[in-house]
Specification:
Shape: globular
GO molecular function: transferase activity
Number of domains: 1
Number of helices: 11
Distance between the termini: 26 Å
Largest sheet: 9 strands, mixed
Pfam families: Glycos_transf_2
Protein name: Glycosyl transferase
CATH architecture: Alpha-Beta Complex
Helix content: 25-40%
InterPro entries: Glyco_trans_2-like, Nucleotide-diphossugar_trans
Keywords: Transferase
Structural class: alpha/beta
Length: 289
């Protein structure tokens, strides 16, 4: 199985190169990498094109404009899908793969049929882990289902823990290296490093393209809330998140205010997605045709 890798760049080409170099150091795996420059206004496109040109397993794509996080990554995902690759690792440009056997492990990772996305320990330079994250946008139906399930109602094969108990369990489970399927009503994966599996691509095409930046993980959790698809957290696998994002480079002095504005915009969009019917939500993730 070929593992696809997508790295999206905006302005921060030095970080992107460092990320790709960590991918190139992976051993024992067949990897095809796509680097997408998202309409950078600096020398990123030129620098990345020069860097990628001699690399036979690295493709470079330059978007003519900044499409945002979701659409920008979807360009890379689409390029890999057109080559028949259906297990794709999407990395932020400030991610470094510190385990040189990670790609090989992901190639051979067995996932349950209902798992569409896999995530890992996402640690910063101080070793602090940011995965999983709390879900902040939920559909009304899932809230009612939480209550019914917790009170001993129907048993759904896709629900792996009772919502009220899951929060209590989190403190105990977070140090356990065993993979676990997340309850989509309470937890979601960190979007800095996500493995989209063949199960996901049987039904959907990529990230929900409605947001420009932020809440991409919540939109994926909404898809899980509405359907039987699930996310799996594998804490035994670890990546380094240097947290040197492109956003602050772009916004400079106004970083905090622009960030807040983007967050509010994306939250509103995610809330609208959560109010859609299951069928409507599914169609939002099918945009290739």
């Amino acid at each position: 199985m070929t593992l696809g890798v997508v790295v999206l760049n905006y302005l921060n080409y030095s970080c992107t190169i460092e990320c790709v170099e960590s991918v190139m150091r992976q051993r024992g795996a067949d990897i095809k990498t796509v680097v997408v420059d998202n309409g950078s206004t600096n020398e990123s496109s030129k620098e990345l094109a020069t860097f990628c040109r001699p690399l036979s397993d690295v493709e470079f794509i330059a978007n003519s404009e900044n499409l945002g996080f979701a659409k920008g990554n979807n360009v890379g995902i689409s390029a890999l899908r057109s080559q028949g690759i259906d297990r794709i690792l999407v990395l932020n440009s400030d991610i470094v793969l510190t385990d040189e056997n990670l790609a090989m492990k992901l190639e051979h990772l067995t996932v349950p049929d209902n798992v569409g996305i896999v995530g890992f320990r996402t640690e910063n330079n101080e070793g602090q882990n940011s995965t999983p994250r709390n879900v902040t946008v939920r559909s009304g139906f899932t809230i009612l289902r939480d209550i019914y399930t917790t009170l001993g109602g129907f048993k759904n094969k896709y629900i792996t823990s009772k919502p009220i108990v899951s929060t209590v369990k989190k403190a105990v489970i977070q140090h356990d290296n065993a993979p676990r399927i997340l309850n989509p009503n309470s937890e979601t994966l960190h979007g800095a490093a996500l493995l989209f599996t063949e199960n996901f691509f049987k039904e959907y095409d990529g990230f929900y393209p409605g947001t420009f930046l932020y809440y991409e993980e919540d939109c994926l959790s909404i898809l899980c809330q509405k359907t039987g698809m699930r996310e799996m957290y594998c804490p035994e696998y670890k990546v380094l998140h240097k947290e040197r994002g492109s956003a602050k480079m772009a916004w400079k002095k106004d970083a905090e205010s622009v960030q807040r504005k983007r967050q509010l915009e994306s939250r509103t969009i995610a809330q609208k997605l959560a109010k859609m019917s299951t069928k409507q939500v599914q169609e939002q993730f099918r945009f290739k045709h």
